[in-house]
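Q: Predict the bound structure with PMV.
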Amino acid sequence: MIKVSAPGKLMLFGEHAVVHGRPSIVTAVNHRMGVKVEKRNDDKIVLEAPDVDVHFKTIRLEDLNREKFDKGSCFVIAAIKEFFKKYGVESGLHIETKSEFSSKIGFGSSSAVTVSMIKALSELFGIKMKEREIFDLSYKVVLDVQGVGSGFDVAAATYGGTLFFVTGGKIIDRINIDKIPLIVGYTGIKADTPTMVRYVEEKKRKYPDLVEPLFNLHERIVLSARECLEEKDFEKLGEMMNFSHGLSVAAGVSSRELEKLIYAARLNGAYGAKLSGAGGGDCMIAVSAIEKEKSVIKSIEKVGGIIIPVETNVEGVRVENV
Ligand code: PMV
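A: Predicted complex:
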């Protein structure tokens, strides 16, 4: 039996612009998704994923390519299909998934489970895969299932750390830094990333002269934020967050709930705050001086935000002891 885990992620800078060829910064967080996989002696794939309400879902190998699979199991099944196809192997499998975070908060459970599955299968079948190969195959799976996405979440799950990332993995650069003192507030509202991505695409089609410059500014902010991270200049990093968030507001992807949390943080001592990810819900992030952290946290909670303690910059996909 093989046990593997991969981290969730938070996008720090460059959301949406990254889908359109600009760079972004993403960090891997210490909330992990785990899979346990073992071979079975028959032709069945059995999946137990209690976090997404999947209980002993059973699929015959010959039906792998036929059925359409529901939300809870589609990434795991698609990962198996692609892996079998690419390496010409096949076996019945028993799979259990277990997440340390809810699939509702936007930490990237789909990509983390996909990357974990690909890594677990490579171990199970004795096929050596480099990080790049795990990324490429997992990104293909995620794109096939989801239809859109830059793959930044797949990169975070695979490589871990904090990454400078360009869509499709054209650039995946490790940024050499220590932990980032991030405060994370969850709005309580699940965002639908593909819908938000299509919304911004539509905006770009309608107003290219307005939206392209927003993307260009995102790029400038990402470059500056990278320097701030490397120099541990968290005050300026906060200012970059505020600039970045202003662009997201202009693109129309913020929400009243996000604004409530972001303004609470800003008005109570944060250097800066922004939405993280597609927008429309999920999480906001803030940085502040250490002595102001408590008041920032309290203020976010006071307006209904749920604080999610995170450690940033954690290890990518790894085999765990069984
Ligand atoms: O909503 P999240 O956390 O999955 O982030 C989406 C970020 C986008 O740039 C909007 C999409 C993408 O795939 O890069």
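A: The radius of gyration is 20 Å.
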